[in-house]
From TrEMBL:
The chain crosses the membrane at residues 44-69, 78-97, 109-130, 150-168, 174-192. Keywords: Cell inner membrane, Cell membrane, Membrane, Transmembrane, Transmembrane helix. Belongs to the YciB family. This is Inner membrane-spanning protein YciB. It comes from Roseateles aquatilis. It holds the Pfam family IspA. The keyword Cell membrane applies. One of its GO terms (cellular component) is plasma membrane.
């Protein structure tokens, strides 16, 4: 359930964008009629309508996600709060200026926030953030925890750069595909690599003593 909630705004962004992109004229008319009062100039063109509608849907989905967790009395992760702040701020700018540039920065800023959290906790606070999260479940030597923490910081920093590159070097449609499939795929590969590395450094379980032969 949590995994579905985490990925729901991303999936809704992709589905909405693809649907509106295939009906650009309809999307422009719909956005102008229903969101024109939020847009500078009051009119949305066919070129920017798909990403604008997808952004609005994502904003609503993220707000609904936070409200749902609040009403259920569940803890809201810091990264979700940061994601909410970014999507509301940059999403509002995207809608008002009807420009996809702002929303394209959102994944990068989120990735860099994650990268900075691992970096700052280690360098300035002397803490290993990854060990704090997973230390109760995994037993690893100190050097392994240190390498893993650095790996998370470097990976998310690089992923933020990759998002900017795709956003500015390719079309909005290509960026949307990368946002959903490319970035997610890279995260899955990274997690698999982390799992393999952890398995190499986890202490081996003591073998169970052999049973004595029955007389």
């Amino acid at each position: 359930m949590k995994l579905l909630l985490d990925f729901l705004p991303l999936l809704l962004f992709f589905v909405t964008f693809k649907y509106a992109d295939g009906r650009a004229d309809w999307a422009a008319a719909f956005a102008t009629e229903h969101l024109g009062f939020l847009v500078s100039g009051g009119k949305v063109g066919a070129a920017e309508a798909p990403v604008l509608l997808a952004t609005v849907v994502t904003m609503l989905a993220t707000i609904a996600q936070v409200l749902y967790l609040k009403l259920r009395g569940r803890k809201i992760d810091l990264m979700l709060w940061i994601s909410l702040a970014l999507i509301v701020t940059l999403g509002a700018a995207t809608v008002y200026f009807h420009s996809e540039t702002f929303i394209k920065w959102k994944p990068t800023l989120l990735y860099w926030a994650i990268s900075a959290a691992f970096l700052v906790s280690r360098v300035f606070l002397g803490r290993n953030l990854l060990r704090k999260v997973l230390g109760a479940e995994l037993q690893l030597p100190d050097p392994a925890w240190a390498r893993l923490n650095w790996a998370w910081s470097v990976f998310f920093g690089a992923l933020g750069v990759a998002n900017l590159y795709v956003a500015h070097a390719y079309s909005t449609e290509a960026w949307a595909n990368f946002k959903v499939f490319g970035a997610t795929g890279l995260m899955v590969l990274f997690m698999l690599g982390q799992g393999l590395y952890m398995s190499r450094h986890m202490p081996e379980q003591d073998e169970a003593p052999a049973e004595e032969p029955k007389p």
